[in-house]
Amino acid sequence: MEEFIAAWIARHGATRDRLLPLLHAMQEEAGHVDDAWVPGIARALNLSRADVHGVITFYHDFRRAPPGRHVVKLCRAESCQARGGAAIEASAARRLGVAMGETRGDGQVALEPVYCLGLCAIGPNALVDGRPVARIDADMLERIALEVAA
Amino acid sequence: MRVFVSRDMASVALGADDVARAFADAGCDVVRTGSRGLFSIEPLVEVETDDGRIGFGPVGPGDVAAVLDGTHATRLGKVEELAFFAGQQRFTFARCGVIDPLSLEDYAALHGWQGLAAARAQAPQAVVDTVKASGLRGRGGAGFPTGIKWQTVLDAPAGDKFIVCNADEGDSGTFADRMLMEGDPYCLIEGMAIAAHAVGAGHGYIYIRSEYPFAIYTMRLAIERSAHLVAPFTLEVREGAGAYVCGEETALLDSIEGKRGQVRAKPPLPALKGLFGQPTVINNVLSLAAVPFILAEGADAYAAVGFGRSRGTMPVQLAGNVRHGGLYEIGFGITLGELVNDVGGGTASGRPVRAVQVGGPLGAYFPPSMFHLPFDYEAFAQAGGLIGHAGITVFDDSVDMAHMARFAMEFCAAESCGKCTPCRIGSTRGVEIMDRIMAQRAPSAAAQPDPGLLPSQEHGSLAKALYSRAPSRIDTSLDAQTSLLRDLCDTMKYGSLCALGGFTPYPVLSALDHFPEDFGARAPIKEAAE
Ligand SMILES: Cc1cc2nc3c(=O)[nH]c(=O)nc-3n(C[C@H](O)[C@H](O)[C@H](O)COP(=O)(O)O)c2cc1C
Ligand code: SF4
Ligand code: FES
């Protein structure tokens, strides 16, 4: 990761406001931002390790452990709830065999909460490995389950 | 043959990509547009004919032949003539769903850049005066007059001034910012360039939440392609990282600066000491996107529609359990009932409407008995609510309002920036109170609470760990807990630094006041006939 950081900094600069873009880039590259990389980030941007750690843990997006091979981000916000989101959340947890906010033991799939995807008239909605999916019902859930089993 | 298919994230979620591919495979020239904004007809395909664009929707990939020969059962005719569209006043969203969002020719052909040209022909003060005269108020929630904000930045001593666009749009039930960025990105860029000219700023940021990957992609491309048209003003996109509170303007500035998104105490105002300590205009997407129209058509044309001190149009978003959900841009003053029942067509489930939440997770819940309320900042404030970013989430009669009140507290606890105690701790206490109320209320009450989260009736170690004071030591009666809830809301309302902690009481107390039966109170006693 040291090399990745150095190359990224060379292209984008080392000012403090680069911290979030750098973290996004690292997570894009590696799937998560490992605690072991914090000292390298801190050195590159001339920040304290505590400062970098504080930023990483503040934002829900940044993961400190590798995610599942597939990630289902299911919307939990009000408009999706109004369309039966809570029941779909319960079925999804059952069908995928993983609790909300967790990665399944075998690392195959993670079920993550998201609070609104801006698709609020066609819920319940999810991002399945980044692909938006709407009007999730039992059939759709089955298709998602098969997709992430692969 | 030319056909138009939306590439808006919502359309794609409903299968528009497969539909577009099927038409391309059939030899059509497929133009990908933004969304028109009515999701019950998506995926929508519009076919170019001598008579104009004829819409069909919803359409699947197997429907190509029937659409092309005009026999498909979902033929809609001209989309803009459908009742849902004919009733709108599209000032800001005039091009959305019509043009190829990234085509500079399309944008210029439909009045694009006229506002910027008009602005640049005037002195900055004249531009600010026009925005003031239009009556435009911030569309991000607070409704602060945009022209006055710009005046403060214009009057600030010269230096590195910034334009920041707040595209964090975290409120459930809202998607207008997203639709505009995906469907007409140059309109936002033009608005920001006008703001830059008006206050003397050189660089701008668009802070987009990470949940909006399509908008981020489209805005980045649009910035690149229009750079020569807005120069010397420059722009960049910054991606959020899943923190609702970063929609609060000072938290957003800290986030751009690379810090935890914590709310700053005001003063100093961002207009004077904002991003990197410099004078900064920070406006919502819709505020900035309204400006090109105002400059091109004149302040009067904008101010001519509206209601009271709410001038111009509002892109209202109909969401949740609603039959015709989508984006409805209309002058202020239309009533809540007209929006929900006439435009939205009631619930999608066909059951009676029980409640609507207006203004996102910090907005109040209203029962149908309040549907006479006109859409207007002042009228909503008087009724104990807010318009916010104009999202309306519809619920049918299966909703458990105590559960929604609990969710409001839970959301506040999850998203609190942690700076002040009433919000950080109060919200967690609020969840606990709601759990006790839901455990106590009559078993007939709507839905059952989550059994995993109930306080244990014995005073086990779990209950002690979960609850600051074990149930054995507090009065858990409904009356006691309900008045504790009111007390807590009072503390949060008056003791919080920003509206996350300060406005969470709106959904909680409105649910309690309008739907007391869900909180275990006896149903209101009907007046006995004389
Ligand atoms: C918790 C919280 C979240 C907010 N989220 C947003 C948001 O997502 N988008 C937005 O434009 N304003 C949001 N606001 C309001 C902003 O603080 C600010 O008022 C707005 O960006 C000013 O722009 P305007 O005058 O154009 O509305 C939020 C405020 C709070 C307290
Ligand atoms: S009210 Fe909540 S979100 Fe707002 S500043 Fe206080 S702790 Fe932060
Ligand atoms: S509430 Fe689920 S997408 Fe907006």
UniProtKB/TrEMBL annotation, chain A:
<keyword id="KW-0408">Iron</keyword>
<comment type="similarity">
    <text>Belongs to the complex I 24 kDa subunit family.</text>
</comment>
<keyword id="KW-0479">Metal-binding</keyword>
<dbReference type="Pfam" id="PF01257">
    <property type="entry name" value="2Fe-2S_thioredx"/>
</dbReference>
<keyword id="KW-0411">Iron-sulfur</keyword>
<dbReference type="InterPro" id="IPR028431">
    <property type="entry name" value="NADP_DH_HndA-like"/>
</dbReference>
<dbReference type="InterPro" id="IPR036249">
    <property type="entry name" value="Thioredoxin-like_sf"/>
</dbReference>
<dbReference type="InterPro" id="IPR041921">
    <property type="entry name" value="NuoE_N"/>
</dbReference>
<keyword id="KW-0001">2Fe-2S</keyword>
<protein>
    <submittedName>
        <fullName>NAD(P)H-dependent oxidoreductase subunit E</fullName>
    </submittedName>
</protein>
<dbReference type="InterPro" id="IPR002023">
    <property type="entry name" value="NuoE-like"/>
</dbReference>
Automatic annotation (TrEMBL), chain B:
<dbReference type="InterPro" id="IPR037225">
    <property type="entry name" value="Nuo51_FMN-bd_sf"/>
</dbReference>
<comment type="similarity">
    <text>Belongs to the complex I 51 kDa subunit family.</text>
</comment>
<feature type="domain" description="NADH-ubiquinone oxidoreductase 51kDa subunit iron-sulphur binding">
    <location>
        <begin position="402"/>
        <end position="447"/>
    </location>
</feature>
<keyword id="KW-0408">Iron</keyword>
<keyword id="KW-0004">4Fe-4S</keyword>
<dbReference type="InterPro" id="IPR011538">
    <property type="entry name" value="Nuo51_FMN-bd"/>
</dbReference>
<dbReference type="Pfam" id="PF01512">
    <property type="entry name" value="Complex1_51K"/>
</dbReference>
<keyword id="KW-0411">Iron-sulfur</keyword>
<dbReference type="InterPro" id="IPR001949">
    <property type="entry name" value="NADH-UbQ_OxRdtase_51kDa_CS"/>
</dbReference>
<protein>
    <submittedName>
        <fullName>NADH-ubiquinone oxidoreductase-F iron-sulfur binding region domain-containing protein</fullName>
    </submittedName>
</protein>
<dbReference type="InterPro" id="IPR037207">
    <property type="entry name" value="Nuop51_4Fe4S-bd_sf"/>
</dbReference>
<dbReference type="InterPro" id="IPR019575">
    <property type="entry name" value="Nuop51_4Fe4S-bd"/>
</dbReference>
<keyword id="KW-0479">Metal-binding</keyword>
<dbReference type="Pfam" id="PF10589">
    <property type="entry name" value="NADH_4Fe-4S"/>
</dbReference>
